[in-house]
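Note to self: user wants both folds in one dump. Writing first protein now.
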Amino acid sequence: MKVAFIERFGPPKNIVVGDLPRPKPAPGQVLVKITAAAVNPVDAYLRSGSYPMDLPMPYIMGSDLAGVVESVGSQVAKFRPGDRVWGSNQGVYGRQGTYAEYAAVDECWLYPTPDEVADRDAAAAALVGITAHLGLFREAKLKMGDSVFIGGGSGGVGSCAIQMARAIGARVLATAGSKEKVALCKQLGANAAINYKTDDLDAALEKFGPVDVWLDTKRDQEFDRVIERMAVNGRIIVMAGGDSPSKLSARQLLAKDCKLLGYAIFNAPPDEQRKSAAEINRWMAKGKLRPLIAREMKLSEAAEAHKLQEKSTLGKSGSLSGKIVLAP
């Protein structure tokens, strides 16, 4: 089968597109014929070696997939050949990834694809949708009427978070890096949106009022500035922040009964991710959630896709609004 893989850590040019044996589903696994695989920033971190993890070599990259069940191993109860499925959490903890024509996936990491949802949308929503849902609902206990700040609202996680928050009746202030992206955030449902490069964030926050839930997808965050804008019993969600330069004031947190909650999707057990996936399916089927897709590319273009992803994320160009989706 055709796959995109690496044999050593390094830059995108290390990505090889070639043939590797098709996997066979072990007990409890499902063999999926992949029709779409999304590209995430973490894929680039793992490829480069900057996110240390013990990975098999050759290593097939990719967390997300959507496709059709080709066959099932013994002990599989939920799926059968011909079923449409989507999933995430591949390419980590010894599991091979999804930049391939086929993947053998543990049944617990797969979910049925609603008839109303295209495979490319299911793949694009996988990691970013589950990440957004875990942050807003498992961690922050978001509820109707809450005020939410979402930084990076036109990105993969941010765009899903805006739609989820609005779906339950929360108020949203979002930021983005251009006039066009600000308009996009408003189209997604944000009550207010500003350009963080040119507009006055403090003035916008003052007008918006105290923030109940703060979720910023950018790698650099200023927690001392954030706490000043939080409501009493506010929840600050940390799902990025590798470049955060600021110090955290315990006195500020205590004074407002604020909570600082960090999490990583790959640590969430299958049952918790399944709850998120069920809500994502419900919203996607009703048209209340649609992931942003910036580019659709071929599996053979995986190296170029990684260059684009790194330029947008690590290079801070913000050139992508949404996900890159690869088609085998």
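First done. Writing the second protein, which came from a different request thread.
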Amino acid sequence: MTELTTYEAFILASGALILGIIMLVRGGDQTIDASVYVADRFGVSPLVVGFTILAFGTSLPELVISVFANLQGSSGIAIGNVIGSNIANILLVLAVTALFVPMKITVSKNMLKDVGFMVFCSVLMTCILVFSGGVTRLAGFSMVALLGLYVFLQYQASKKESKVQDEEMTVPQFSKPSEAYGFLFFGLVLIALGAEFLVQGARVSAGLLGIPESVIALSIVALGTSLPELSTSIIAGRKGQYDMVVGNIIGSNVFNILMIIGVTSIIKPIPVGGFDAQLINFDVWVMLLVASIFTCVLVLSKKISRMTGGLFLFSYVAYTAYIYAVNLLQ
């Protein structure tokens, strides 16, 4: 058997990346549709579905990617995936949605609590990485517990505020429950396989290009796993559900930090120094800065204009170009 050339290996790795992204998107769509159907069949309210199943569903690709990567010793992909996804959710997903449809946001008390909690989670992750250099199993348990408490309190607060505030939610239709269960199972299998392809493609590509795995995770992997949020946000924006768009971004960022980092470190602690120092010295601070700027724009202007979307998108392109340039020029 002839040995693959570098060019051939790169083509195969790129193919694995693309195939992994396609499988993640298709698997994510099927998992969410089937989950919403099953939840509706068991009488779970749209509010609970939004806080749990939909938020978990759109973050499921990131979760599987991070768990698989950390188990295989690629903690840079696990951490970089979360940081990159949180940056992409605001600077890319929100930006592209605003370019399609400028959004006026109703900033309610609950939304202020949510966005404040998102910034708090960003600060928490920054402090954990900066001061400990890794994530212990105890820290992981604490993050998951905090997420559970947050979801419970928000659900209770929303119930007290109004029992009529649950918006109508389009429930996907299946001919019979067994079909929904089949789609749910098949969607989870697609996500698992897609994650494996994406992780392996990212590791090989990083090695061939001579750049850290974390940079691939911050860009290509994060972009691929943010596609469910992008499609959901554009559809919601075109329907005029602007608060849902913002809620999707906030919820995804909170789940990315507390659930993904938490569950990943519970399964296997993320070791100190197990990833590139750039993630601590630069990227996690960018994530915190982006979350803070988004909060200021939301609270002060109560809208996401096309100009804001354009500036966000330009910032994302500039950030991505910078992290590649710094590593390729070393």
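Dump finished. Worth passing along: Confidence is low (pLDDT under 50) at residues 162-168.
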